[in-house]
Amino acid sequence: MSENRIYIYKRYERFWHWSQAALIIVMMITGFEIHGSYTLMGFRDAVNLHTLAAWALLVLWAFTIFWQFTTGEWRQYLPSMRNVSAMVLYYTVGIFKDVPHPFRKTVVQKHNPLQRLAYLALLAFISPLIWGSGLLYLFYAQWPGLGLDKYLTLEGVAIAHTLGAFLITAFFFIHVYLTTTGHTVFAHIKAMITGWEEVDEAPVAAPAASRKR
């Protein structure tokens, strides 16, 4: 099969992807310092930077959600079970045997079925867990006024937030690993920088009327 270059990732899409990645990295570094895993900048500075990055990410998400719905790009994340088993087989076995990728990217289908399910898990479970617990943590002083202190404990919220942190960290590193599974190690990363993706172009069969009988 020949290769074809198509413009898949729009300018704003690339901007929010890399901005989100940078903010998540900042939050991971500061978050685990707040947790006491190591000392890098000091507890107070880590808390302040972590909080600032969290608010910046929420603002970025607000703009991105607006962009997704006004452009119709939200459809890229609709889950599908079609060919999921083929994708699992490819990533667990086929990729190590140089088997052709079972999914071909297009402008209207940028994510394979396995990616869509992963994003669904991120949006439906991991994000609510980490953001819900994080906001409860941040506004702990307002719990009594809202009556939340009768139902929640700071320790329970901290455990939930830590669980969310480990899940998002695992998701992040798996995502980084999968970026190395393109035509070359840096092919997918390059595409997210330039917007242009190299995809396999299957040969198109000649029309029936033009075939020799």
TrEMBL record:
- Where's it mainly located? membrane
> Which ranges carry the Cytochrome b561 bacterial/Ni-hydrogenase domain?
9-195
Query: Transmembrane segments in this chain: where?
Result: 15-34, 46-67, 117-139, 159-178
One biological process term from GO is: respiratory electron transport chain
State what protein this is by name: Cytochrome B
> Which GO MF terms does the UniProt record name?
electron transfer activity; heme binding; iron ion binding
Query: What's any one GO cellular component for it?
Result: plasma membrane
As for subcellular location, the record says:
Cell membrane
What Pfam families does the entry give? Ni_hydr_CYTB
SUPFAM superfamilies reported in the protein's UniProt record = Transmembrane di-heme cytochromes (SSF81342)
Gene3D superfamilies under this entry? Answer: Transmembrane di-heme cytochromes, Chain C
Species: Thauera phenolivorans
